[in-house]
Write a structure and sequence with these properties.
It is a single chain. The chain is an alpha/beta fold. It has four domains: about 10-70, Single Sheet (N-terminal domain of TfIIb), CATH 2.20.25.90; about 85-150 and about 345-450 and about 470-495, Rossmann fold (3-Layer(aba) Sandwich); about 165-335, Dimethylsulfoxide Reductase, domain 2; about 570-695, Beta Barrel (Barwin-like endoglucanases). Helices cover about 30% and strands about 20% of the residues. It is built from 25 helices and 29 strands. The strands form eight sheets. A seven-stranded mixed sheet has the order 6-5-16-15-14-7-8, with helices on one face. Strand 17 and strand 18 form a beta hairpin. Helix 4 packs parallel to helix 19 (about 475-485) and helix 8 packs across helix 12 (about 280-295). The protein binds ligand MGD (2 copies), iron/sulfur cluster and molybdenum atom (MO). Iron/sulfur cluster binds near residues 23, 28, 53, 57 and 189.
């Protein structure tokens, strides 16, 4: 704990007592109680009454105290000087100068030369919408976010098939759960309670992962396809279900489009083909198929990030979503349920203020991504910054993100950011990205803001409380508000004096008020979850057919394959030069992307980067545990310690290296050009590489 060294103590909303709020050290948003004594935060404990965490929390949540009081926190705006050092300036001076520079860029190059970038630390609702709103009101469509490499592929894969995504599909009611390329004990803790409940009631569990992730130990079947070949396995399973007749004939007939073509495409994925392509034995495919047949229709297949960071990830996820449809497991209890929205107001301006005069970056290369998500493509942004785009990108305001570590092809990212005329970074710490900024603004943590949290799978909304105010530190809303007013569109688009007023406006069309939410820290159910809504309402799929789209006429409009075709991953063809496959970014319990390496007691546990390697693979290159090794791809190389794992823990041809390390940035070897044609996702999970020993330990 650092609170003794903390130079400025925030003013707490109560001098002594407990404040209920939601933890936002990760997107799970557990309900927690902040304990305050003499104005100082002394403890954080879980709230008992919230359905998300039910009285539990994790150590990262507790570390919110360390983060809040951290001696390295930036508390004053900083301006880069000609000699490269940073000097403190006042907030007014910083914002005046930033606004002036933005207007210079606008006058010289047009509004599209400005952009914003929202990172994972700010989540996916209210905070994200501020960033979208500000840049749009300014006249530019260039909104970027971590979603260029997070969640969009899963979202699009499911949306293209059944018209919706569900971040919490109610696993506790399933008879069979398939965790496909996801690691909930580390990444999504509340899933574990739901999974445990289901298992206790007799449900079966299948885990599909090239690595022995912790939940695999509980699985009835643990299948290990070589990274990037999951699509072939998914097709093989669909073929099995169709051939054996174990699918919901009536549901398919009434509610699905394109079954014949889907079934015809599945033909080639015989168990023999699947075994050759994925390494998963014929018999295991048949066993999984039989378990699915026995579990239907209460089957939930949850797709993780391990499926989306691939060259053809969206199509692989489409096949999995299609399999749910074959089983009639859509919008059913114990299946992939269809959440209803609460009908709140949105802060985005896409409907009322179309972007004119320029193409948002990436919307030509990845039109599906842009049309559905209104999301620009961060990898393409780097080219625009470097002067290789349709128009120049000269300025960026970046909040809650650290792309100098987390975006692929790190070297290019650094070069591109250095090319900007204006880079403003709003962060808590002097990160690798902040080091490159012209201005750094002190960001507020989640304890210093209040926002709505929509737990859509539960159809429940909650309000987090602002617990502290640190003098001079403003929340993200005030950043955008103050800039918008300086840029001349504040009165029209940011009229609310503070975040509380915004929240009231957002909630107006609903029957829920902020006052009620304050009285109910456990949140309010805005509509009970219901099932089989499709019997009375069309599926909200994109082609307007009202049916589940096993083949997608919508994609055809963009010249993309209607059937979710399988594409063999590129590492297979590059075996001679790059015999290994590097997976990156399997999450670590205490780390969060590039965050938390500065929490001293975490650092003791995860002190350095290690690449997971199979003992035979290590032996073949004369590598011993802890030796320094170099991983080389067609893009670059990274030097890291070898961490030899047990032979059951990883496939021999696969390596795994976490992506958040500043000391061993794996994104030096990932590449930004090999992107999924639908979502634009970079290839982060099946990178062709070789390994060599650099030095003995
Ligand atoms: N502690 C912690 N929790 C986190 C995060 C964090 O940084 N730290 N990040 C959060 C965020 S933003 C996200 S997006 C989620 C991601 O959460 P998850 O979706 O659970 O993703 P990962 O941990 O990246 O990967 C899960 C598994 O996918 C496997 N995998 C990798 N490639 C492949 C493949 O080609 N095929 C198959 N079948 N499996 C593969 C990996 O071995 C790993 O075990 O986690 C969230 N939770
Ligand atoms: N190779 C590889 N790369 C990956 C991935 C992978 O699996 N492999 N995963 C990708 C995924 S899924 C994601 S989501 C991205 C995440 O990538 P980023 O969005 O860059 O996320 P972080 O590295 O967590 O950076 C968050 C920053 O926000 C700051 N911060 C913390 N709290 C707050 C706050 O309340 N307000 C503000 N303004 N700032 C705050 C932190 O100090 C930190 O610098 O990484 C992606 N990159
Ligand atoms: S899982 Fe941990 S870090 Fe995430 S919200 Fe819950 S307590 Fe916070
Ligand atoms: Mo993510």
């Amino acid at each position: 704990m650092h609170k003794k060294q903390f130079p400025v103590r925030g003013k707490a909303v109560v001098e002594n007592g407990t404040v209920h709020t939601m933890c936002r050290m990760c997107d799970t948003r557990c309900a927690v109680k902040i304990h305050i004594k003499n104005g100082v935060m002394v403890n954080i404990t879980p709230d008992d009454d919230h359905p998300i965490n039910e009285g539990r929390m994790c150590v990262r949540g507790l570390a919110a105290m360390d983060q809040f009081y951290h001696p390295d926190r930036i508390l004053r705006p900083l301006k880069r000087q000609p000699d490269g050092r940073f000097a403190e300036i006042s907030r007014d001076q910083a914002l005046d100068e930033i606004a002036e520079k933005i207007l210079v860029i606008k006058n010289r190059y047009g509004p599209q030369a400005m952009s914003v970038w929202k990172g994972e630390a700010l989540g996916f609702a209210q905070q994200e919408e501020y960033a979208r709103r500000v840049i749009h009101a300014f006249g530019s469509g260039n909104y970027f976010s971590n979603d260029s490499a997070c969640f969009n592929s899963r979202y699009l894969g499911c949306l293209l098939v059944n018209g919706f995504w569900n971040n919490y599909p109610g696993m506790e009611n399933a008879d069979l759960i398939i965790l496909w390329a996801t690691n909930p004990p580390v990444c999504h803790l509340p899933f574990m309670r739901a999974i445990a409940d289901a298992l206790q009631k007799g449900a079966k569990l299948i885990v599909i992962d090239p690595r022995m992730n912790p939940v695999a130990c509980r699985a009835h079947i643990f299948a290990r396809p070589v990274s990037g070949t999951d699509g072939a396995l998914a097709w093989g399973l669909c073929r099995y279900l169709i051939k054996t007749g174990h699918y919901d004939h009536e549901f398919v007939e009434k509610y699905c489009l394109g079954f014949e073509r889907f079934a015809a495409y599945a033909e080639k994925f015989t168990p023999e083909f699947v075994e050759r392509e994925t390494g998963v034995k014929k018999q295991m495919l048949l066993d999984i198929g039989a378990m699915i047949a026995a579990g239907r229709p209460r089957v939930i297949v949850y797709p993780g990030a391990g499926l989306e960071h691939h060259e053809n990830g969206v199509n692989n996820i489409r096949v999995i979503a299609g399999m749910e449809a074959l089983l009639g497991a859509v919008d059913t209890r114990g299946g992939w349920s269809w959440p209803e929205s609460m009908g709140r107001r949105k802060l985005t301006l896409y409907d009322e203020l179309p972007v004119t005069g320029h193409r948002p970056i990436g919307s030509d290369k990845f039109p599906v991504l842009y049309n559905i998500r209104h999301e620009c493509h961060t990898m393409t942004a780097m080219d625009y910054m470097l002067g290789r785009g349709e128009y120049p990108l000269k300025g960026m305001i970046l909040t809650g993100a650290n792309p100098a570590v987390t975006n692929p092809n790190t070297r290019k990212v650094a070069k591109a950011l250095a090319h900007l005329d204006l880079l403003v970074v709003n962060d808590l710490f002097l990160t690798k990205t902040a080091e490159m900024a012209h201005y750094i603004l002190p960001a507020a943590t989640f304890l210093e803001r209040s926002e709505l949290h929509d737990y859509s799978g539960y159809q429940r909304v909650g309000l987090s409380r602002k617990v502290f105010q640190i003098p001079g530190v403003k929340d993200d809303y005030m950043l955008w508000h103050d800039l918008a007013h300086r840029l001349g569109f504040g009165r029209k688009y940011f009229p609310w004096p503070d975040e509380a007023a915004v929240t009231r406006w957002i909630l107006e069309p609903t029957e829920i008020t902020t006052e009620e939410l304050e009285k109910h820290p456990e949140g309010i159910v805005y509509r009970p979850v219901s099932y089989r809504k499709y019997e009375n309402a069309p599926f909200p799929t994109l082609s307007g057919t009202g049916k589940i789209e096993l083949v997608s006429p919508y994609l055809k409009k963009f010249g993309l394959p209607e059937v979710p075709e399988y594409v063999s991953p590129s590492h297979k063809a590059l075996k001679d030069k790059y015999p290994l496959v590097l997976q990156t970014g399997a999450r670590k319990p205490l780390l969060y992307h590039s965050r938390h390496q500065n929490i001293p007691h975490f650092r003791k546990i995860f002190s350095r980067a290690r690449v997971e390697i199979h003992p035979d693979t290590a032996a073949a290159s004369g590598i011993r545990d802890n030796d320094l090794v170099r991983i080389i791809s067609g893009r670059g190389s990274v030097v890291v310690s070898a961490g030899i794992v047990h032979e059951n823990e990883i496939l021999p041809e696969v390596l795994e290296l976490y992506h958040g390390w500043e000391t061993a940035p794996v994104n030096l070897v990932t590449c930004d050009e090999r992107c999924d044609p639908i979502s634009g996702f970079p290839l982060l999970k099946a990178v062709p590489v070789r390994i060599e020993k650099v030095a003995s330990r």
